Amino acid sequence: MKVLIIEDEKFAQEELKRFLERIADYKIEVLDCLESVEDAVEWFESNDEPDLAFMDIQLSDGLSFEIFNQKQITCPVIFTTAFENYAIQAFKVNSIDYLLKPIEEDQLKAAIDKYSAIKNQFSPQKSPALSTVQVEKLLSMSMEAVEYKKRFIIKTGDRLRHVSVDDIAYFYSENDYTYLVAKENAKFIIDYKLDELVELLDPNEFFRLSRKFITNIHSVKMVNKYFNSRLEVILDPEPKDQILISRVRVPEFLNWLER
Length: 259
Prior knowledge:
Elements: E1 2-6, H1 10-21, E2 29-34, H2 37-46, E3 52-56, E4 58-59, E5 62-63, H3 65-70, E6 77-81, H4 87-90, E7 95-100, H5 105-122, H6 132-142, E8 151-156, E9 159-164, E10 168-174, E11 177-182, E12 187-190, H7 194-200, E13 206-208, E14 213-216, E15 220-226, E16 230-235, E17 244-245, H8 250-258
Parallel strand pairs: 1-2, 1-3, 3-6, 6-7
Antiparallel strand pairs: 4-5, 8-9, 10-11, 10-14, 11-12, 13-14, 15-16, 16-17
């Protein structure tokens, strides 16, 4: 079994390699250890896909989901992360399991067993990797239909009201608070972190522009080219802070705009 590790922490890389070496039921070869989205994209462009990839979600230059936006990848993936809130997004790509750090050996062994069982079920000839069709079957087995949030409850004084997601321009964080900005430019504090909102909102309609902003696609007023291959995003209503899309996230953002 040929395995690729994408993990930006050296200690976590070495620990995962040690755990894999101790799984006696399988002959596991670690092909490489990579630390960034950019390195991973270059690796997949230059090499045959592994049988299985382990991916940390938060890498040094962005989220590992960005790899799938820049390169078509069909190998199954086991995600490793310290955060629970990426689980839904993980199963939208080639994920067969989702391990929370610190990883325990028995959980890792169970994930490898799961991969092997699925591979044997769909591939009697034991081909080196799951095909795209097999991955799609796996995903249909692994997750139920996702229901995205349709409205938010807002407190104004002693009253409660609801705001439809269709009426939301964007969300932003400031001084440990998260704000909902409606299209009429009304602003409300809500009890969600941006990381939580990413999982609750329809990714076809909302996009996380930066650590501080998530926008509705209909609120993107203008996009300008910016220094160092970045993009500047102008929203309506216009916030007080400048919003820049990092170079590595530009392809993902442009793909989202064109959906």
